[in-house]
Amino acid sequence: MKSRFYPLLAAIACALIPLHAHACAPQNAPCTIYRFRDYGTGGAPEGGLVLGPNGTLYGETSAGGTKPCNATYGEAGEGCGTVYSLSAKDGYKVLVSFHGPNGAFGASTVTLVGNTLYGTTQRGGAGQNGVIFAVNTDGSNFTLLHQFKGPDGSDPLGPLVPGPNGILYGITNIGGPGLLKQSAGVLFSLTPTGTYKILYEFSEADGENPNTLVMTPSGILAGGTTFGGPTNPDYCPQGCGVIFSFNPANSQYTILKTYSGGYTYTSSPFIGSVGPDGTIYGNDEDLFSITLSGNYQILAVSNVYYTGDYPQSGPLLAPDGTLYGTYTSGAGVISGSLYSYNPSNPGVLNFVCPGGSAPQPILAPNGDLINTSTLPLFGTRPAGGEIYDCTP
Q1: Exposed (0-12), middle (13-18) or buried (19+): which is 268, by Cβ within 10 Å?
Q2: Average confidence (pLDDT) per 10 residues, the chain, 392 residues
């Protein structure tokens, strides 16, 4: 992100939405810039945020909205989620209200390409297995690009990854064409003309239930899976997950690392960022880096009772080389934590925006963060329904 956007971001953080924004917090303290109080405007923002070139934030909620869910998808009278925008100029706006047939339960980060937002919902659509959609940043021209039916994937997760020639890449957490592997998920592509293609079908042996996906500068995709790989009946009867790569040019799938559980307790890797040199950064309880050749390195070890536990996404790599991320619980309490890692101080995780003397900056923070080159960080927390910022 470019630093020239910071003044407008500061305006968002300090002058936004008088009815819902809290007073702007000082440096290294959390600041709630929007609170979802009306279910008609959305609720439970489980996905992360994306920043537009005009300083507008865009995201999804997994509940609420102006249209009630179809009875097939949710409880009567409740919405199935929204796509929204948030800016200092226009405030909070609902761009799309999901009601079932057009999608339901948006829990991912949207992807911004030009003036179009691309995203997914975990449920809804003709097959009730989720959808891929596109919508302009002003809320116009909402289009369903693909509706999952199960054999082609189900429960799409994570932001769609833009690739060369306008192709989007993504993953589904479950589904797939193989009868015996129908819960394992798929890796897919979607062309600008709407052609959907399964690129790889996951299985218990080589990685099951993919959770994150990124693209390296060389065009290789990399990600993590929650289960699969070698099984360990004492710790991981379904496998503890793998880190994988996939080359779209030749369809080569490679397992970069497997997990076996045990005393290290690391498992279920989440991939978050890629450096300019192609180094991949993630969190498997510990913060790590890995290369496409499989060179895995632990950068910092998490202490469940101090730094946190249960990451739900990988770390954000800031322009100065600092890594930022979240744990959704632990840190001495059940509230979770935001952390930072500076390569100049190897092995050490630091709290970011602790919000007082106790290490509990926010309640159950969602993992996806965005930042500018001069900060602040922006993120969401579904528990309590808030959008926050943090300036370390």
Answers
A1: buried
A2: 34 39 55 82 86 89 84 66 92 93 91 94 92 96 95 92 95 83 85 93 92 96 94 82 97 95 76 95 94 96 70 86 82 67 87 50 50 69 79 76
Residue 354, SS3 per DSSP: coil
The span from the CA of 58 to the CA of 92, in Å, is: 10
Establish how many alpha carbons lie within 13 A of residue 344's alpha carbon, considering only the half-sphere containing its beta carbon.
3
The DSSP secondary structure of 10-51, one letter per residue, reads: HHHHHHS-TTTPPPPP-TTS-EEEEE---GGG-B---S-EEE
Q: Give CA–CA dist 142/107, Å, rounded.
A: 18
The residues, any chain, with a CB within 8 Å of residue 151's CB and separated by 6 or more, are 175, 176, 177, 182
**Cβ–Cβ under 8 Å, residues 241 and 259:** yes
Residue 216: CB atoms within 10 A of its CB come to 17
Q: How far is CA 385 from CA 79, 165, 266, 362, 363, in A?
A: 15, 37, 29, 11, 10
Q: What is the pLDDT of residue 86?
A: 93
**What pLDDT was estimated at residue 273?**
93
Distance CA 216, CA 214 (A): 7
Helix, strand, coil shares, percent, the chain, to 5: 5, 40, 55
- Taking the mean position of all CA atoms in its chain, how far away is CA 345? 27
Q: What single string gives the DSSP state of each residue in 102-164?
A: TBB---S--EEETTEEEEEESB-STTSS-EEEEEETTS---EEEEE--BTTBEEEEEEEEE-G
**Helix H or strand E segment including 280:** strand 280-283
Q: How far apart are CA 121 and CA 32, in angstroms?
A: 25
CA-to-CA distance for 327 and 354, rounded, in angstroms? 13
Q: For the residues of 288-340, what is the DSSP string, one character each?
A: EEE-TT--EEEEE---TTTT-B---S--EE-TTS-EEEEESB-TTSSS-EEEE
Per-residue confidence (pLDDT) for residue 74, from 0 to 100: 54
